[in-house]
Amino acid sequence: SFFQDPAGIFELVEVVGNGTYGQVYKGRHVKTGQLAAIKVMDVTEEEEEEIKAEINMLKKYSHHRNIATYYGAFVKKSPPGHDDHLWLVMEFCGAGSVTDLVKNTKGNSLKEDWIAYICREILRGLSHLHQHKVIHRDIKGQNVLLTENAEVKLVDFGVSAQLDRTVGRRNTFIGTPYWMAPEVIACDENPDSTYDYRSDIWSLGITAIETAEGAPPLCDMHPMRALFLIPRNPPPKLKSKKCTSILNVPGESTLRRDFLRLQQENKERSEALKRQQAQLAAQRRDPEEHKRQLLHDRQKRIEEQKEQRRRLEEQQRKEREMVRQQEKGPHRRLDDIRREEDRRLAEREQEYKRKQLEEQRQSERLQRQLQQEHAYLVSLQQQQQDKKPQPLYHYSKNVEPNNNGTCYNFNLNNPTDHTFH
Fold this sequence. Notes:
The chain is an alpha+beta fold. It contains 8 helices and 11 strands. Helix 3 packs antiparallel against helix 5 (198-213) and helix 7 packs across helix 8.
């Protein structure tokens, strides 16, 4: 509810900036701990209607990925005689504004693909507003916030105005001088002058120059002098020729990678500053306790440095091991090929030896069979010799002469010695 007291619902944590009408705090939802951006403003009767109009616009048009989400509005009552405080609670963008990003970047200049990514996201948010007949009228780096996931969000509708559905133009002079379009400035000089949504596109172009060069054109001049020159000068251009076309480079994830690293460094610097301030306050309260705390912090830093060195050495070891593995890759494949060839050669040799052994065994079996057959034949021959018939005549020492008178004399002691008579 618009009139609900924020006590017990949201609480303020710390100041993070100044808006159009008041200070902006980092806040926290009491029950869930969810962070939020809380703009605290002193409410007067004259400003009440305009603030209500702003709240209505926030309710209607903040549901877009490139516009900071509206959570609610509260009124914190003040003592009599003092203005009440209006709390506008919106999505918290923990990475700061585009202006902060530029200031924290070396050379105060963003990379071209970063600029392209930011401009594209701003255009998506402006397209959403323009489709609903709303002109932002204060587009600049300070009003473009970044989340820790590198999301781009438009904020500060304090100078936004809803377009008339028929005329579609405004003739009120509100905005930041250096980012103003010439037709917006002309409204102050000529009441009949008007402008439309295209003034936001001009401011986006000035914001692109701000991200590339660290500041908008004419920033070194007095604001009134800039208001005089902007309508009379030609449209500003980039001073550097190194940028090709900042709107012609795709960048869905390019910003996130380096940007998150930069935000981590900024967060560490902010935490170090807070620790230093806390140490100074503690030193003033209790010097002895401060000394003990310093020793404790020093020991803690030493341990953290040791742990960081250990992690770094471990990472370097893994990287060296990875390089060695990559270098060994081709050699390992050659070794695998050689081992495979050796294995196949060993298998072939084993197969050859197995076949040789089988042939030798076969030869031995054949030889045994031949020997058995030969022995069998010899035994058959022996059996045949044993079965020969007895001779029909038996010779004695005296042999009778034959019919023709021949006489044979045999020497029985020497059968070869015989004579004929």
